[in-house]
């Protein structure tokens, strides 16, 4: 898989080379490229040089803040997005990012993250590439506003790449982790068996694997009921 990240802060993604993702890159499972949006703002729409490499302008209809220019984004995305690639726009106005969507995106040949700043990107950009037949997703990490899409893109990149076959050392750990079966993960413990007067649940020391599995599933249900009832199936 190729992952392209378009941003006005390319240095933000330099950490990609040292993260867990770094190992996958060496294994050629994932190629990441970072693109500076301002490289596509060197010339104005009339072809004259733009020494300021402007990427934003005032919103039509008024309102606070600035909007990112469609012509600049169009040049950048034209240069990067490949046939079959998915354009992902992190946004507070997007659909919620989930483990299921991460698994879906892990099968794409390319992801292009358009990292917006200011008040966002001119809406015609998403419209244009959808009309051109590309899969375009506006995706939210949650109900809060960030200053830019970079943090969200980084989180989504990690959530997706770790699901690429051959990336995670222990495939079983992916199957067992939170949200994989729609429920939150059970609590985990390791040595020492007693720590500051707190004991590990006896069942986990019993060696009865069937009972341990049953206990863990009950813990998952209990946790999901108390912390994330929205995840429970209707019969709950
Ligand atoms: C593409 O359009 C955007 C993108 C972002 C950055 O992403 C997030 O904040 C985010 C992504 N998942 N959850 C939150 C922020 C704004 C924005 C800023 C200020 C006021 N209104 C909107 C707009």
TrEMBL record:
Q: Where is the tRNA methyltransferase TRMD/TRM10-type domain?
A: 1-232
Location in or out of the cell: Cytoplasm
Entry's transmembrane regions: none
Q: At which positions is S-adenosyl-L-methionine bound?
A: 116, 141-146
Q: What's a Pfam family this protein contains?
A: tRNA_m1G_MT
User: Which terms does the record give in the GO molecular function aspect?
Assistant: tRNA (guanine(37)-N1)-methyltransferase activity
Q: Which PANTHER family match?
A: TRNA (GUANINE-N(1)-)-METHYLTRANSFERASE
Name of this protein = tRNA (guanine-N(1)-)-methyltransferase
